[in-house]
Amino acid sequence: MEEGIGMSLEIKGLCKSFGDNVIFSDFDISFEEGVITCILGPSGCGKTTLLNIIGGLVEPDGGTFSGFGGKRFSYVFQEPRLLPWKTVRGNIEFVLDPSLSPSERTSKADELIRRVELDGFADHYPSQLSGGMCQRVSIARAFACPSDIILMDEPLSGLDYALKRNLMVWFSQIWEKDRRTVIFVTHDESEARLLGNSTYVFSQAPVKIVSGRIP
User: Fold this and answer.
1) Which residue has better confidence, 157 or 81?
2) Average pLDDT over residues 39-48
3) How buried is 130 (Cβ within 10 angstroms: 0-12 exposed, 13-18 middle, 19+ buried)?
4) How confident is the model at residue 2 (pLDDT cuts 50, 70, 90)?
5) Which of 95, 143, 160, 180 is the most buried (most CB within 10 A)?
6) What ranges make up the beta strands (E) of the chain?
7) How far is residue 178's CA from residue 119's CA, in Å, rounded to a whole number?
8) Cα–Cα distance for residue pair 15/131, rounded to 1 Å
9) Considering only the top CATH level, what class is 36-58+71-197?
10) Is the peptide bond before 42 cis (omega within 30 degrees of 0)?
């Protein structure tokens, strides 16, 4: 993969197949840095595969990548994936820059806990929290990680509308104070329109961008 640097992140000529199942064939896409870009499409259309390729978890079969060199990534998954043996504060501190002093780590973690409105739960373990509360910790942890790009893989799937909307509000509030590049995949149009600065709509695989870029 070739690397470059610019104000946007670009993928050109992406190819990826799993056996006879072609997911991407000569596929192009770009992402503006410092904004939230949503990828909208049906289940199985390659959204998660693209995230995993971008994050380095899956090797592409071909393609050139510009602007990704040296970038650090953090993830928010559909399941919170918190460390069960660590508290809320411990989960957040776990991904902080190791050069921070103990007092700085606690201060940073507690600030993020306040932003997702989990004051009073810093010493609770994941098993003591609801699913929505655990996902709030995941959002806080993604911003605690010293990353350049946050990859979000349908993190609101399965949640009721009220909780989903609140999570988007909490996420947006943190992002406004710490504007990372965010790539958010979903099959829910309302999530894309409420959260995204722009949205790509994917077809079923082999993936095509079926309606351009929606403001």
Assistant:
1) 81
2) 90
3) exposed
4) very low
5) 143
6) 8-18, 21-32, 36-40, 62-66, 73-76, 149-153, 181-186, 198-202, 209-214
7) 20
8) 36
9) alpha beta
10) no
Q: Report d(CA 147, CA 14) in Å as an integer.
A: 24
Which range, of 66-70, 160-164, 211-215, averages the lowest pLDDT?
211-215
Q: Which residue's structure tokens are 């090797």?
A: 59
Structure tokens at 67: 């602007």
Residue 19 neighbours by CB under 8 Å, 6+ apart: none
DSSP assignments along 3-57, one per residue? ---SSEEEEEEEEEEETTEEEEEEEEEEEETTSEEEEE--TTSSHHHHHHHHTTS
pLDDT at 4: 40
Q: Which residues contact 79 (CB under 8 A, 6 or more apart)?
A: none
8 pLDDT tier (thresholds 50, 70, 90): confident
